[in-house]
Specification:
The complex is a heterodimer of chains A (317) and B (300).
Chain A lengths: L5 H20 L6 H24 L7 H19 L3 H25 L4 H19 L1 H4 L5 E2 L5 E2 L2 E2 L3 H24 L1 H11 L1 H6 L4 H27 L1 E2 L6 H14 L4 H18 L7 H15 L7 H10 L1
Antiparallel strand pairs in A: 1-4, 2-3
Helix pairs in contact in A: 1-7, 2-7, 2-10, 2-11, 2-12, 3-4, 3-5, 3-10, 4-5, 4-10, 7-8, 11-12, 11-13
Chain B lengths: L5 H33 L6 H18 L4 H24 L7 H23 L15 E3 L2 E3 L1 H23 L1 H11 L1 H6 L4 H27 L6 H15 L4 H22 L4 H15 L8 H6 L3
Antiparallel strand pairs in B: 1-2
Helix pairs in contact in B: 1-5, 1-6, 1-8, 1-9, 1-10, 2-3, 2-4, 2-8, 2-9, 3-8, 5-6, 5-8, 6-8, 9-10, 9-11, 10-11
Chain lengths: 317, 300
Amino acid sequence: MLRIGKIPIAAFSLFIIAFPWIAHNIPPIENYIDLMIFAGIYCLMTIGLSLLMGYAGQISIGHAAFYGIGAYTSAILTVHYGLNPWLCMFFGMIMSAIIAVLVGAPSLKLRGHYLAMATLAFGIIVYIIFNEEASWTGGPDGMTGIPGLNLFGFAFDSVEKYYYLVWIFVFAAFIFTANLIQSSTGRALRAIHVSEPAAGAMGVDISAHKLLVFVYSAVLASLAGSLYAHYLNFINPATFDLFFSIKLLIMIALGGMYNIWGAIIGAGLITFLSYEWLHYFEEFEVIVYGAILLLVTIFLPNGLVGAPEIVKSWFRK
Amino acid sequence: MDKITLAGQIFQYLITGITVGSIYAMVAVGFNIIYNVTEIINFAQGEFVMLGGLVMVFFYSVLKLPLIMAFPATVILVTLVGMLLDRLAIRPIRHPSVLTLIIATIAASILIKGAAMLIWGKDPYDLPAFSGRNPITVFGAVIQPQYFWVIGFLIIIVIALSFFFDRTIIGKAMIACADNPDAASLVGINVQQMILLSFALSAAIGSVAGITLTPIALMEYDRGAMLAVKGFGAAILGGLGSFPGAIVGGLIMGTIESFGAGLISSGYKDAFALIVLLIVLFFKPSGIFGSLEISRIKRF
């Protein structure tokens, strides 16, 4: 759970690097490269959130808001003010961090469900703002004309190029998070996860560590939002609604919240479910999501990553 | 038509606010009943209200049952849904923690919402008002007769609940579970049954809120989440777990929303209650009637 093995990382990197080439040679899955971009964007969010849920034991039902703040900061600053997209991405992350401190600091001092409700309320408020402040955000119709990304004259203008860009960010976040878990901060988080009173007695500042994780996850969500905006060149508020926050929750619960791989597996599976495999359910896919979330909570409390353990324990009996 | 005076307008906002606030108060009471017995925050609380409205539409407008029969039939059906929620979503969890319980109630809420969309579709439904739609004009404010039904039912619920918790042995057993589940089971109280009962009660109250609200504000499948957050806001404002707090919190919440939408901005109507919720969480999380001491004793 704690050490991230070198072999799985190497295998996963190879898969990610080779995927566009594989997909190109199998026509039915050619559009999967596009889907993998979304999977990558979602991974950025679930990596941070799984740290928040798995280690800090807190739930956020408002991360769509940070995703949206990133996307809208990028969109507004580039479209209305013509700023450099990379700079906007950075501003979005700072903005999200500040807001995360404001929302998180009071609620993380309390216990249990307070952060869940505070983030839920916060997420809905932000969603209403996206809809109402039409002179800035374009209202329910959204914003178009968000520029793409380029670096020193190299434009990320094709699906493949953007794919690699997104996954480089995912790998950076993955490695950084894995190192964070191994650091003294990570040890403090693990102590909090095992027993809050014990960690507190050892001098770990519990609410400060929880806040750190919450802010980190918000910053990652904001980065994901910016990447989304610059990829699609178009955003509207519907992307950042309450149900998307719940979808993030489903990704993490499905993959397994106590393991960073769980975040990746969950994000990948739900991306493919929602864009590809659940098409014929149309809007009734919400029932499928509800059923997945409930069944996983009851039967697979550690998510798919924990499934091998459960199978093993059957054989031991 | 009389000239609308400022005083009349303010009175109008107040009456509307108290009516909507009564609904939030009912949702808040529902939160409190489950929270007191189980320490769970039931994120599916708003779905009971939504179901109350839509099931009533089915019994009253589709099956053409008389009001006096459709009302109890709806309450019973939604109560059963509440009991199923406990049996199918909450109890099967083997190692309950705040995290898993929150996730389970969220899962249940989107399942219920999805099922409602499957059954009733996405259109909003109307119900005939219980005693017609001829408004009464008082001090320049237009009052729908239905407003009195909403406020009246809140009063009935308050009286019935205080009788239940103060005078009946089952009610006292539930309070015992709320104070200390281990001690309660030692003296022979079946805690599991009390939990089931708390879900049943809170679903029943939610359904009454939905039935009385629908003639005023229509009802559709996706209203649950917003009602739940606002009801939770009311519960927090009054002090989580406190019944007088839930009533006062609900009425304040409704009034703030009504004045905010009327005087400041109607587009931000839904945001006012949520901003109040955040402000309370940040500055006085124990609420008006709650005490932080008690909230520290609670497991979650």
